[in-house]
Every structure is written in structure tokens, then in C-alpha cells.
Specification:
about 210 residues, mainly alpha, elongated
């Protein structure tokens, strides 16, 4: 069933991000003598940014109604199961058969609804992750060049090979702070333009003097 939104599927973008990291590292390594190796947790960084936290909250809000619907369906099945258990010795055979069929039918409906909801959730989640991951890569690339790193490694995926990790420098916190600093959502709102004063009414003309 659909659980709380905590971006658990972030590993789906790790391979793509790591490929970009390695490509960027190769360019840096060819341009300078390898001196610094940076280590970043992409998964943690995405979730820790203000944009990531907002996206997680928005996704939670969007899928809360679906989650409640699935919980209601599950509650209906549990009620039927309880009814069947209580009347196991006294219930008529026809009634018992009908309840059993209802339980089976509702269970199938719940499974289909859960699978559909999970697929939709993962699709929306991956869109957000790819968008935030792309923005984060721009920050990582600039940070690596500005700070003379020859290699940046992502340690958030078990499949990611980590070289020289013992001598690496953890940069996740710095990347999150730099991302938030330059994120449009963190910038102060533009000042409102000053209101244009209303035009003053024209002065009334004195009445013309009467002719003799």
C-alpha cells in the first residue's frame, strides 16, 4: 500500500546522476593534477534541500486522499473477516459463502487499487527527483570547479564504487547550503512597486462676470 512520502525511491536516479558525476570528474581530472576527492550523499542532499522538503510535502498532500481510500477499503475487508470469524459456528452456510466471496472480491480490488496508486506515486516521485537531481548537478559541478576537486563520488547507492573514500571530504552539507542559497524559493520576494498617486482634481474655474 501507499506509504508516507519520504522519497524512498531516490535510488532510481542514482545511476544517471553517478554517470554525470563520473563524466564530470573525468573532465576535471584531465585538466588538473588529482588532489582532492569529494564525497556526497545525493539521496540525502536532495531530501535536505528546501525544494526537496517542499516537494516531499506536496507529494504527501497530493496522495493523502488516495491513501485514506485504500485504508478504508482495507478496513472494510477487516470488518467482513471479523464478522465471518464471529459467526463461524452459527452462521448459515449460504451467508458464510457470500461473505467469503465478498472478502475475496474486495481483496482483489484493494490489490489493484494499491498497485495503481503505487505506480502513480512512483511516477510523480521520479519526476520530482529527476528535476531536483538535475538542478543539484549544476551546483555540484560549479562547486567542484570552484574548489579544485578532481573527483566527486556519490555514496548514497551501494552499487556506487567509492575510491579514496578514507581521504575524501564530505561535501553534502555545503552542497545543500549552496543549493538553498541560490534557489528561487529562498530568495526574498521582489519589492512591490510604489503606488502611483491619484491625479489631483482640476481647480474649479470662477464663474464669468455678467455683462452690463
Amino acid at each position: 500500500m501507499l506509504g508516507s512520502v519520504t522519497f524512498p525511491g531516490v535510488s532510481t536516479v542514482n545511476k544517471a546522476l553517478f554517470a554525470v558525476l563520473v563524466a564530470g570528474a573525468a573532465t576535471l581530472a584531465s585538466a588538473q593534477t588529482p588532489t582532492k576527492v569529494g564525497i556526497i550523499n545525493i539521496q540525502q542532499a536532495i531530501i535536505a534541500t528546501k525544494d526537496g522538503q517542499k516537494a516531499a510535502g506536496d507529494l504527501q498532500t497530493k496522495f493523502d486522499p488516495k491513501k485514506k481510500q485504500l485504508e478504508a477499503m482495507q478496513g472494510s475487508i477487516a470488518a467482513l473477516q471479523q464478522e465471518l470469524a464471529k459467526g463461524s459456528n452459527t452462521m448459515a452456510e449460504a451467508k458464510r459463502t457470500q461473505i467469503t466471496r465478498d472478502i475475496d472480491q474486495k481483496t482483489k480490488e484493494l490489490q489493484r487499487a494499491s498497485e495503481d496508486a503505487q505506480a502513480e506515486f512512483e511516477q510523480e516521485q521520479n519526476k520530482l527527483l529527476n528535476d531536483l537531481g538535475g538542478k543539484l548537478m549544476v551546483v555540484i559541478d560549479k562547486y567542484a570547479r570552484d574548489n579544485a576537486y578532481s573527483l566527486i563520488l556519490d555514496v548514497s547507492s551501494p552499487q556506487t564504487p567509492v575510491l579514496f573514500a578514507a581521504n575524501g571530504v564530505e561535501i553534502t552539507k555545503e552542497i545543500v547550503e549552496l543549493y538553498d542559497k541560490n534557489s528561487p524559493s529562498s530568495l526574498p520576494p521582489a519589492p512591490k512597486p510604489a503606488a502611483t498617486p491619484a491625479p489631483k482634481p482640476a481647480a474649479a474655474k470662477p464663474p464669468a462676470a455678467a455683462k452690463p
